[in-house]
Amino acid sequence: MDLLEFVRNLTLGVVGLAWVVFMLSWAVGWVLKGLPLPFVRVKKTGARIIEDTVWAAFWLAMGTTVFAAISYVVSVVYQPMPPPPTV
């Protein structure tokens, strides 16, 4: 495995896991907010979780952009060395 493959695999793994955690917390937030219980505290907790997941989605998108830029830079910089010149 070369450096380029390692960076791409790491990027895909981290971003994929982050989106799964985002979707899970989004679902939990809406479930808590929509529960037919008379407890306002539970509904407020659900609303807070939803608000936090919106911020998480924003930062996840920003992080994905940074990871994509790093992957691009590595793919441009990591070129095989040319053979030495022969005289």
Question: What is this structure, in a nutshell?
Answer:
With 87 residues, the chain is mostly helical. The chain is built from 2 helices and no strands. The chain crosses the membrane at residues 12-32, 53-78.
Task: Describe the protein's architecture and organization.
Keywords: Membrane, Transmembrane, Transmembrane helix. InterPro entries: CedA1_arc. The protein has 87 residues and is mainly alpha-helical. 80% of the residues lie in helices and 0% in strands. It has a domain of 41 residues. The two termini are 34 Å apart. The model has no long low-confidence stretch (mean pLDDT 85).
Number of strands: 0
Mean pLDDT: 85
> What portion of the residues fall into strands of 2 or more residues?
under 5%
Instruction: Indicate the structural class.
Output: mainly alpha
* Helical fraction: over 70%
Shape: rod-shaped
**Total helical elements:** 2
Q: Enumerate the spans where pLDDT stays under 50 for 5 or more consecutive residues.
A: none
What are the main properties of this structure?
mainly alpha, 80% helix, 87 residues, rod-shaped, 2 helices
Topology of this structure?
Elements: H1 3-34, H2 40-77
